[in-house]
Amino acid sequence: MVIRKAAKREIKEIAKLMLKEFSKPPFNENASLKAVIKSLNFYFKVGKVYVAVIDKRIIGIVVFKVEQYWEGPVVIIEDLAIKEEFKKQGIGKKLMDNVEAYAKKNKIRAVYFKTNRKSPAVKFYKKQGYKLKKEVVSMEKKIKLKE
Question: pTM value?
Fold first, then answer.
């Protein structure tokens, strides 16, 4: 298996993988392929997109960006997805290790992300040394747009 920067020409394949994995519980994302591709196009411009590849097949993806916080630059992971048949084989760990290596190389002291509290991945992230931040609350407000 190889972890490498994703190529822009792979965007549709990556979007299909993400759409399939994030449409499952607990995420239950209900997005179109077009919407996922639009999001990925954005992250190809402002962030980093890495893929895990076996036999020229993309089997995992991590999307992240760097933001400037008061304490300095931080890595924000936007998405991490592994094809179902490749889960529990260390691929997610290797993708996370890649993100952490990027952070170290660029003298970034923290990696942040959000995930669904009910996701089985929470156990995986804890095993990687990540901690739940009890003082953080995720809030959202939908804005009604005129059509």
Answer: 0.89
Cis peptide before 26 (omega within 30 of 0): yes
Residue 133 is assigned to a structural domain of this protein = no
Residue-by-residue DSSP string for 13-62: HHHHHHHHHHTSTTT-----HHHHHHHHHHHHHHSEEEEEEETTEEEEEE
SS3 2: strand
Distance in angstroms (rounded) separating the CA atoms of residues 25 and 137 = 21
Question: Does residue 136 fall inside a structural domain?
Answer: no
Residue 18 is part of a domain; what is its CATH number?
A: 3.40.630.30
- Give the DSSP letter of residue 116: -
The radius of gyration of the chain's CA atoms, rounded to the nearest angstrom, is: 16
- Total domains, the chain: 1
Q: Which of 83, 93, 91, 89 is nearest to 125 (CA)?
A: 93
The per-residue pLDDT for range 10-33, each reduced to its tens digit, is 999 999 999 999 888 778 788 999
Q: Which domain range does residue 49 map to?
A: 2-127
Domain membership of residue 56 (yes or no) is yes
CA distances from 56 to 11, 48, 112 (A): 14, 20, 30
